[in-house]
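ASSEMBLY PREDICTION REQUEST
Request ID: AP-0331
Submitted by: J.K., bench scientist
Number of chains: two
Total residues: 618
Priority: normal
Notes: Please return the full assembly, not individual chains.
Input sequences:
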Amino acid sequence: MLTIALSKGRLADQAIELLEKAGYDCTAAKEKSRKLILEDPKTGLRFILAKPADVPTYVEYGAADLGVVGKDTLLEEGRQLYEVLDLGFGRCRMCVAGPKELKDGALDRIPNKRVGTKYPNITRAYFEGVKKESVEIIKLNGSVELAPLIGLSEVIVDIVESGRTLFENGLDVIETIADISARVVVNRVSMNMKSDEIRPMIEKLREQVEIMNAQKEA
Amino acid sequence: MGNNKYYTPDGFNDTLPGICAFKKDAESKLRRLFSLHGYSEIETPGIEYCDIYTKPSFVKEEELYKMVDQKGRLICARYDGTIPAARFAATLYKDEPLPLRLSYIENMYRFNQSGGGKQSGFTQAGVELMGAAGSDSDAEVIALAIRSALEIGVEDLQISIGQTKFFEGLARQYGLDGESSDKLRTAIAAKDSVMIERTAKEAGLGEDEATMLRMLSEGAGNDMLDEFDSKITDDTARDALLNIREILNVLDEYGYSKYVTVDLGIVSSEGYYTGMIFKGFTYEVGFPIISGGRYDNTVGVFGREMSCVGFSLGLSLAITALGRQERIPEYKGPDVIIGYEGAIPGTRAAALALAEKFRTEGSTVILDSSHMSEEELDEYAASRQIAATFYINMAEEGEE
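STATUS: Completed
Returned structure:
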């Protein structure tokens, strides 16, 4: 029996689609219900639907053997996991964003910046580790773009997909911190104790991802 | 109750009767096993100067439970068994002939960065073989780790063996600089193929080299050794592979091959390993229950150079796993309870004699000193799962 933790929402749907293409019957996971655990004894797969930020936790503690989650969540949570596969979907960038005027080095001239973000750990690691400065981090839980508009912070750190929300609010990407996409993560013990089930699954998923990427390029 | 903290601090638990009995029994078994293999148990104080952990940065400062002593110096709760043993071997035991064989069964205290659920206080049992180099010593310690796990009832056991020198040699063969080799090591440890590929490309490595590095992270299994053998030119890496092969051969002689696989991609969170490194896994817990390896440069930091190898078994974690695998016997009360009618002279002496008789035979006996009546005694026995009750209400030996 393999337990797979999925990030509730679009990422879960895409992951299920990919698993089906790879030959795994996911009828149980597609069941329209409010159940949080979807199990199919026939296929030996059990799905749990969790909040994205919790997926790495379930996997690190071994409550789930593997999980599908965005790289943004992985960076933020910093869990000890095997990160075995880039699924190629859910693509976006983790960025420092703010008023256009701060582009091209102007940001660096502001001392003691305030940064609004849903990702305090990524923000701290980036400013302290890469830019070698300490900043005041203001933890927000949504609509982060508001913060620089209303004077709560100078800049924000957030994921940017198309950048439309930013542009429409007079903001822009100032610096890119990391490229983000959906990843398959595996518990370190499960990788060893259940390798007969997990390794073939990763291989089959990898094949599908390669096919998908090839189609995209064509 | 207000703000009074009448509960255990975050990350710490009481050990209840039953589990505690099982744990103490496991500790006795391990103590005997270590002793049978010539390892002498030591106790370290449980409080150390932070310097022994942080000065050569064996452990991150944030992970230590810190306090100050009377002179304002930073001290910390014991984080692991290895570093205090290394300090001990290099100072108090600096003139002892080598090799030394030391063991410990003690509580460790760590701030767990992940937080919530993972314990901050836990018991580890382990050994250190100090002043012994070579594959045979490596194998001795791995074999003892396997035997320890089996001894306490962990039957589903899997040991992964790696070698930190292998990557070091490979990095040299590929001409990697410090930064890209650090990045790659981290990526390999996380089995992060995306990062491996990107870093390999940035470092100017070709397709073949990138494939090798990916294999290193993904591959487990003994046949990988041949594959690598043919592609290695660096002596350090070659020696590392030879070391693994020799260890496997010795473990085969022990009859332990079925527990062991090679995983050259394992990298430890402890920074002091310098050669063979291994982890032990079982079902139902998400973390390794055994961790060990060779550390040749650690004791030297404290003033006496010696090659060492050791392991620790996370006893608390192993017991959690055994519990979930339903291998821990259910809690059982004492075998017998004996009560007596206090008003009648002579009954106490008779009860005492009976209790002693049972105890001599090895039964666990409560001699009731709270003057329960016969009915109360029966009720109490039923609620505490005590198998037999005796109530003495006449001077001669009588039972019910």
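REVIEWER COMMENTS: Chain A has a mean pLDDT of 91.
SIGN-OFF: pending second reviewer
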